Amino acid sequence: MTEEISRYDVLIVGGGVVGTALLYTLSKYTDIKRIGLIEKYSDFGLVNSASYNNSQTLHFGDIETNYSIDKAKSVKRMADMVMKYLENGKNNPTGKKIFSKYSKMVLAVGANQVKELKQRYPAFSELFPKLRMIERDEIGKIEPRVLEGRDPGQEILALVTEDGYTVDYKRLCHSFVDNALMKNPELDIHLDTKLLKISKNEDQYSVVTSKGEFRSSVVIIAAGGHSLMIAKSLGYGKNLAVLSMAGSFYTAPKVLNGKVYTIQVPKLPFAAIHGDPEVHSEQITRFGPTAKPIFQLERHNMSTFFEYWKTFGLGLSPILSLLKIISDRVLFSYIFFNFLYDLPYIGKRLFIKEIRKIVPSLKVSELKYAKGIGGTRPQIVNNTTRKLEMGEAKLNGDKIIFNITPSPGASTCLGNAYSDTQEVIKFLDNKFKFNKEAFEKDLM
User: How far, in whole angstroms, is CA 79 from its chain's centroid?
Assistant: First the structure.
């Protein structure tokens, strides 16, 4: 007897925060009913959406000093959607705590950084009316340990706001799925279902998995670094490679009351060192991330080693791109020291020098390497330009979208879902409707 093939209008591959945000948006704001989602693990949000694999931050662009004003406007618009979703208690039917709220600040240390922050403030204070510029005394009132042990003659300045969200993105995944199912109980969700092969057959995609074959008119891939591997199997993104950057963290007993970021080094595409409370325990302060390249698509999962090389490519072109990228003195020095930060004994003694820019009096005995904490961020390498591509990496094809890495991470998941939903409607020849007005009223 032949096994029946499930058929969908839209099939989502990946059950992290990007895939589940799209599932929620399609279910609540469109009239598409035949929707499926496959996830290779036994639960949602077990890779980069898990709290132990990311910095748990909802990024708006107010204290991220690597953002231009235009980038901050774009990110704020999308992060505001997640904020509105989180603040709506009805969106949390299980009652499990999804987020905590703290103050957050970006700290300038030394005359050059203070000057840079003062120049930045006027434009950003217009975009973020709650953002305030504060000096030494007020910094000390909000974060006493930032002043404790600091040279009284050292210039410091900070931008601060009370809107600091620490988010458990795995629980947010569950919230998206629960609310999607309440709106459309006919959704097909397949956990423990690994994609094996995908191909285009006339007007449909055939998606072969460990649990059988599915067919769909439209496919949305939301599988992190694996998205590029899948794209390449269909002929897309041949000029791209992925550089997996692993981030690690250190923890200390509570030394900060909220989030404290440092000024971003302009040439680096990686997050500046910051400290913030753990999402479910304000008694623990997490510092990081470090960043080093690894040859896996997923941290702590050696089975993705060969998948990484399939995605990176074994030709001369990606190797030449990588050599050109790391030949930059600033980037090479950064990567070299970040390798050292992960080493036993010596690592924390080197890394504490960075942390002391935030908490000068922190003792080595207070600091602990957070074993098993930290995921990967797929950075895209363009083999044509020989450069790292900053920000979002997305490929659109023939009724298929590959979400490789949103920017900045999970903070833009609903904004990403908004744009992908509009594309889905076009892919389906406008046979269905997207209620943009309702989405915008609820979330913008």
Answer: 12
